[in-house]
Structures
1.
Amino acid sequence: MLDALFRPRAVAVIGASNRRLTIGYRIVENLVDSGFKGPIFPINPKAPYIKNFIAYKDIMDVPLQVDLAHIIVKNTRVPGEIEKCGKKGIKVVIVNTAGFGEIGEEGVKLQEEMLAVAKKYGVRVFGPNCQGVMNSDPEIRAYCNFTFTSMIEGSISVMAQSGGVGEVINNRLYELGLGFRMYASYGNQADINATEILEYWGNDPGTKVIMLHIETLQNPAEFAKVAKEISKRKPVLAMKTGRTKLGAKAVSSHTGGMMAVDTTTNLLLEKCGILTFTDEEELCQAARALAQLPVAEGNRVGIITNTGGPGIIVTDELTERGCDLSEISEASRDSLQGNLYPEASLANPIDVLATANPEHYKLAA
Amino acid sequence: MLDALFRPRAVAVIGASNRRLTIGYRIVENLVDSGFKGPIFPINPKAPYIKNFIAYKDIMDVPLQVDLAHIIVKNTRVPGEIEKCGKKGIKVVIVNTAGFGEIGEEGVKLQEEMLAVAKKYGVRVFGPNCQGVMNSDPEIRAYCNFTFTSMIEGSISVMAQSGGVGEVINNRLYELGLGFRMYASYGNQADINATEILEYWGNDPGTKVIMLHIETLQNPAEFAKVAKEISKRKPVLAMKTGRTKLGAKAVSSHTGGMMAVDTTTNLLLEKCGILTFTDEEELCQAARALAQLPVAEGNRVGIITNTGGPGIIVTDELTERGCDLSEISEASRDSLQGNLYPEASLANPIDVLATANPEHYKLAA
């Protein structure tokens, strides 16, 4: 169902622009730079061309079938554009435009009007007031977003309620050389919501690990039902922000959640088998470990180090979190005795000493 | 008193070597590469030269006055070398050689013998079983250590009981562009100890922040007395490792501490006005903030962001740690109203929005 969103064969950008750093330019640029595998159609009633593309005055003028359209025009014009998208047979629109549910009564009405039109034509809506989505699958390479992180193919899919937090995470995954599989930052989630995306990624063979940034859960019961199933099949990691009184207050002025101090969301997430984090660096490092290594079957850990001090730090951290350091067996100890340096420490951690060579590490492992 | 250690005018390396990656080569190489401001005298009874230097057969043959000598020869030969250093008028020796107090009874005896000789000649001993010291002061540039981090001038002085942890910290400070002021990793601290170094750095005008890695405190009462004074004058940050049962066990096989689960050291450190950490990244980031910014006078914080989500993360972290987010005054709000984007959020955090320019930040600050 979400294939048109995450695996589009052709993308239109309604409200494309030649002004650098505008959303309408950045999306066209990102699609090109990341190597999108299908045609790109910028729509602009005045410009003859956008970047290297002929611009069409209207989405109805596009000569080919389009799966997905970005809409970046003024908020009051969005319902009209969606109607045309419906007539054109477009399946999903990403409404980047803000000024809907998040601005109060008037915006709520406009959002309802927009959804009614979309429903009439069977168009699914992603957003409004959002970044968009990305898919690094080499068959697709869809960078339907205006952010700045380069897209590297990876196996971690990232969903971020805050696009700013999503960009911080993507930057870090890029620095770590991990990239991502798919990405979504859904804004007001007026139609397509976090749960539906989670389910889609649960069924995506290219997604090994799922990372979530959450400010408020839209429909906790529905989310929990899906999350419980997915977390049995692949690791799901979450960072819930706005967990303090003032943090929750800041959330309400950001994405319009209306919670007081939120102590329940993390409990719910954990009950669903989701690993929770409060630090984005730890979130990224955990995702890295889970993406690159098999999930451990037990809590017994062996540590190999070439310098004692960091081995002690790791011992503290692991045992505080419930891991156990197995004793080294007599037999292992005997076999190591003659092959490591005589001063090597044969307890757990095994300290092969600073000048150890790769052979020493292999023996200890 | 420790000037000869941290501000030597000439350094000898007894046991210098031409074999790359040996301690006796690395120290000579580091002194040269980091731009040490005085003469370097490698001592080796067989080699005619070490690196680019004439090698002297014996420390007694060196034609100039020497303040500081590294000793890297076999453990049983160390007392004899110290005796010669004493006769030569050398004030401090760094005994890199291992095989003393940390290896049991026989080593303890050798260490006592070494100290007796040193005392007789008024030679101070740093180590044994240690890395050494560094001083990035542009007048000195002494890299008296065999590690691999390049020396950048900085204002943070780092003392590490584990040289391995010290190297991790130095690497990170280097990556952050901060470098260090002075560094010391003292091994068995048979003579010169952590407290004496702490006091020296407390009086060093170039040291703005002091970072400590601690596995065991040698003389807690004496340490506390000095630390209480120093922490009034400049920030002292500490990371105590081996705080869990298995971590403490690993400490005892590393630097020979004999504590069970150690819950008291952190309490003592905090009582001395020292900030304690369990994570080396947080330790480095805190040192960075304290080295680059004035110490805050109160707990009221204002946050400026250009994207809401990360502002919420910061709000959670700060308020959980006792900071308070001041309300923005009516007057400030009014003056911002017309000058930021109309959609900017004028609460605290102030969200100037993603496309804000430097002028917007300046207004909000």
Note: The domain at 147-295 of chain A is CATH 3.40.50.261 (Rossmann fold).
2.
Amino acid sequence: MTSINQNYLELQGSYLFSEIAKRRTKFIQENPNAEIISLGIGDVTRGLPDAVLKAMHGAVDELAAPGSFRGYGPEQGYDFLINAIIENDYKARGIDIATNEVFVSDGSKCDVGNIQEIFSDNSIVAVQDPVYPVYVDTNVMAGRSGKYNQETKRYENIAYLSCTAENDFKPSLPDRKVDIIYLCYPNNPTGMTLTKEELKVWVDYAKANNCIILYDSAYEAFIQEEDVPHSIYEIEGAKEVAIEFRSFSKTAGFTGVRCAYTVVPRELKGLDAAGNEVLINDLWNRRHTTKFNGVSYVTQRGAAAIYSEEGKDQIKALVDYYMTNAGIIRDGLASIGLEVFGGVNAPYIWLKTPGGMDSWSFFDKLLSEANIVGTPGVGFGQSGQGYFRLTAFGSRENTEKAVERIRKLSL
Amino acid sequence: MTSINQNYLELQGSYLFSEIAKRRTKFIQENPNAEIISLGIGDVTRGLPDAVLKAMHGAVDELAAPGSFRGYGPEQGYDFLINAIIENDYKARGIDIATNEVFVSDGSKCDVGNIQEIFSDNSIVAVQDPVYPVYVDTNVMAGRSGKYNQETKRYENIAYLSCTAENDFKPSLPDRKVDIIYLCYPNNPTGMTLTKEELKVWVDYAKANNCIILYDSAYEAFIQEEDVPHSIYEIEGAKEVAIEFRSFSKTAGFTGVRCAYTVVPRELKGLDAAGNEVLINDLWNRRHTTKFNGVSYVTQRGAAAIYSEEGKDQIKALVDYYMTNAGIIRDGLASIGLEVFGGVNAPYIWLKTPGGMDSWSFFDKLLSEANIVGTPGVGFGQSGQGYFRLTAFGSRENTEKAVERIRKLSL
């Protein structure tokens, strides 16, 4: 028989959201009349903005006839979308990004999962803890994690940067040499952010210590406060050390439509075995064009419509809707004495479970007593133990109802 | 600086179609009035079938309102599509495939590129020569190829199975131990096929020699002859040794819409380092759910519509259109004494260049003298030297015009 990739055997359990789905399904089977409210998986619920719908219908019509039909597009994305991204997400903030530095894809999950391929298998990876599981699992699959330690519940070769209430969810710099640092801001799952000054510390560290920052900025659109950077490239020198990931999933309701993009500056370099400098942009371009064939034309037309005047207004309304939900959850939970974090520049509320309860016990309590599905913090890492994530992506009605139910619990 | 994946430096030149585009662009710049006909890259040109357009419009409408909105779907694809696939592509041919054996994706290029990840880095890979470059390049990236030999123009650790007119484009069995065999039927680029009996030889070989067949069947819809298998699972025992890849790209004009699927039978097993059997289906499921987030809902609704009665008729008309083109090219070229292959069960015509001309010289001659863009056979491997690929995906008018121009050449 053919030998398998042995690293897969180091993967632990199943993906967090599968476990949640399993417990939820079991509960529904046993309680068929329960009216479940899901504030668990970070999935949006509102309809797509009108400007997007109109653009998608238009694109479908174009595909009807040979004259306007579009087959294979550029793997990196169409210029009409790339130019809109550069103009609105970067140039408008004083950042210069070239067209060959933007790679449109079908999702940030794919991009942050695939990016590690272009680096050495020996790279030492640092992640925040709690962390989006994809960062860790994809490095386990590539053999960078080392063994899983059943006691510490951590991989021995991964550097975990703890983010808890004790350090205001701002990680300390690594205490050992690392090559790749995953940073996610606004953070999933904690909903917390860094100021420009705080992010500058990381950029400077990466420059001084020869590492690359993989900056996941999927929740950028939710930033409300002044001093929170929208792009890592607002920090001087970041182009020499950082790759940035952005997504339309949460910004514009694209979780089921699939569009994201990654910026790989031409200034960013790596080293080959002989010590020569190699452009990371070239490597990613080769990877992207060899293993990917572009995003659906219909989707790209929809994404570009977000940048129209009409689209921008509609996106703002969508973000406002969810951020109002976030405020309702924050205030509601705080009013009964729960310790809550996030929810100001991100659609995630991170709460400390009451009475030192562990995360999964709180999950089960919330499900059985309030019929609410949330996400156990420990599912994102050991530093998430004793925390719990609620999302602002529900309807207003469900969000208010959920908060009411939680207020009535004996906690 | 962070160390890169050193294997990328073993990749040769740029991707075939980039080089074609470069030469084409140069020619157009120098000859702005030339009326170019492209029979090069295997991209479709007709509009999408009505049934598909209708379904996509309907899906966009569903995304408008919270009640019918769809966010994240199952990474493996929606049941409505998976069930249609199983019913029509397998059950109708007497093949049992379970829902958890089908993985819907955004393209066969991605699937055949990504599948190698779940196997050991030490696996020995066999490919047909000529070959779709993605099979080779993705294994180079993973470090399975060994060094590139500038004289033989082949990687030292890859087993190349030559397919030329001498063996009627039917590869011999490997002459050394291999672990993974890529087979593509109907073949890209030669357009040739195997009979059931001939394919059975490969299935039996894989069983006897403990290897896995990666069966790329992206052109299945073009099969016209009786004895040509539509699925490798028509061969007894194939579920124990084969993964099958299918695409809607050419079948239904989805090159810009992005949908494909991969079948990984639960009978298929690999070995871990301790000698234990591992289900390949479990590994692929883990890979697919960790690094991919499902295909656009709009695309999946479009793909499912292909299996409606209306859709089936429209697909058949589309395939007939292209296969009539294939006949026109075949007959036209044969009539002036060119040796032509393929084009009977596939939209590709593979011709022997006249007078022993090499593939790129014939490319340049065809471009400069007939203003036709084709694909040099050598771009697919050394055994493609002296051959040339034309595709049947143009319009009828352009196809006829192209054949007329070739007939007038002095060859």
Note: The mean pLDDT of chain B is 96.
